[in-house]
């Protein structure tokens, strides 16, 4: 059947327990002839193509991983919404001439939150009341703390709006905590896989959970690393015609997996204990730029996770650090010959 948005999912859920060979085809690969397309002809065309075995199946993970994927993707959305609300909260303070962000590194910290609660209240306050809310270990001087507050002009309507935004942030934080507990329940049978993937530099527990929720643990569903990286949107496209190379940009696939792997790549190139990815990043960034280099490192991390899940071998930085390029091997061979003479 054709994968049309979310409409195929109820049918797939019903047929999953009765039929072993279900193929969900991308419409791009089963597109009917132009001018001969309606629902009946489209279904017949897909059935004819399937009989000859030329319908490419889309990757549909197991039900447990589909549920886990829904949770991790919802977590991604909630964290983004909370970040937007925090920016909105800080912009509202700036509009009211309150520049606490110039004094405190975290406006949502304990000291800054206490000061904001005091400002939003209808009670009158003095400089001593403001300074009493500041923690003793705060690096800023009392004069700087007072200067960031002096001149604050918030109308009652603005205060009400800031309180609404703050309540929304607290509600989102509560929902994220509840969602964390649900994810912990779902990943209990796969904790060994998560700790296994955490051996890769830059991969944390949250990123390992995201990777598993997107690709699962059975790598036999992907015939090769090229299929997996192309499905994740980390492979440059091949677009050449009449001897001319056109755009080779990566695709828009992997909307949730790609950002996670790029974030892991940023952490991996900063890992001083395992400089393998850092060395690769430095070589690629000189030729292609930093953005392309981060995509290349993200692809290497995904390929490493593929082989680890497929073979069960651990990530060995010592072996990877000793891998030599063909050019380096030739230079070493020439030096050996010269030393013998």
Model description:
- The chain is mainly α.
- It has 15 helices and two strands.
- The chain has three domains: 8-51, no CATH class; 63-186, Helix Hairpins (Orthogonal Bundle); 190-238 and 250-328, no CATH class.
- The protein has helices at residues 8-16, 39-51, 63-95, 110-120, 127-132, 142-149, 156-186, 191-197, 205-215, 225-231, 257-268, 276-288, 290-311, 317-321, 326-340, and strands at 240-241, 244-245.
- It has a two-stranded antiparallel sheet.
- A hairpin with a 2-residue loop joins strand 1 (240-241) and strand 2 (244-245).
- The longest helix has 33 residues, at 63-95.
- The protein is extended.
- It starts with 7 loop residues before the first helix and ends with a helix.
What is the count of β-strands?
Answer: 2
DSSP strand (E) fraction? Answer: under 5%
Query: What's the main sheet like?
Result: 2 strands, antiparallel
Structural class: mainly alpha
Number of helices: 15
Order of helices and strands: HHHHHHHHHHEEHHHHH
Shape: extended
What's the structural blueprint in terms of helices and strands?
Elements: H1 8-16, H2 39-51, H3 63-95, H4 110-120, H5 127-132, H6 142-149, H7 156-186, H8 191-197, H9 205-215, H10 225-231, E1 240-241, E2 244-245, H11 257-268, H12 276-288, H13 290-311, H14 317-321, H15 326-340
Antiparallel strand pairs: 1-2
Helix pairs in contact: 3-7, 3-9, 8-9, 9-11, 11-13, 12-13
């Amino acid at each position: 059947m054709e994968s049309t948005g979310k409409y195929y999912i109820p049918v797939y859920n019903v047929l999953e327990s009765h039929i072993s060979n279900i193929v969900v085809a991308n419409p791009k690969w089963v597109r009917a002839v132009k001018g001969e397309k309606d629902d009946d002809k489209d279904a017949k065309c897909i059935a004819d193509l399937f009989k000859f075995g030329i319908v490419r199946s889309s990757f549909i993970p197991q039900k447990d991983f589909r549920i886990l994927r829904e949770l991790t993707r919802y977590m991604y959305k909630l964290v983004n919404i909370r970040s937007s609300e925090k920016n909105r909260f800080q912009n509202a303070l700036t509009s009211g001439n309150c520049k606490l962000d110039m004094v405190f590194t975290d406006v949502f910290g304990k000291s800054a939150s206490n000061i904001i609660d005091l400002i939003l209240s209808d009670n009158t306050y003095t400089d001593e009341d403001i300074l009493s809310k500041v923690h003793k270990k705060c690096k800023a001087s009392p004069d700087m703390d007072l200067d960031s507050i002096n001149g604050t002009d918030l109308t009652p309507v603005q205060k009400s709006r800031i309180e609404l935004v703050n309540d929304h942030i607290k509600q989102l934080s509560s929902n994220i905590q509840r969602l964390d507990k649900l994810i912990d329940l779902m990943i209990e049978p796969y904790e060994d896989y998560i700790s296994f993937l955490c051996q890769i530099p830059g991969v944390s527990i949250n990123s390992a959970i995201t990777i598993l929720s997107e690709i699962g643990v059975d790598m036999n569903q992907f015939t090769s690393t090229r299929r997996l990286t192309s499905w994740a949107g980390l492979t440059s496209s091949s677009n050449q015609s009449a001897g001319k190379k056109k755009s080779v940009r990566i695709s828009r696939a992997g909307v949730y997996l790609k950002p996670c792997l790029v974030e892991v790549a940023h952490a991996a190139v900063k890992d001083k204990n395992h400089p393998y990815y850092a060395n690769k990043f430095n070589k690629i960034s000189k030729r292609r730029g930093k953005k392309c280099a981060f995509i290349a490192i993200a692809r290497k991390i995904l390929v490493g996770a593929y082989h680890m899940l497929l073979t069960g071998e651990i990530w060995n930085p010592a072996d990877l650090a000793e891998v030599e390029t063909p050019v380096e091997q030739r230079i070493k061979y020439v030096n050996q010959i010269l030393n013998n003479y």
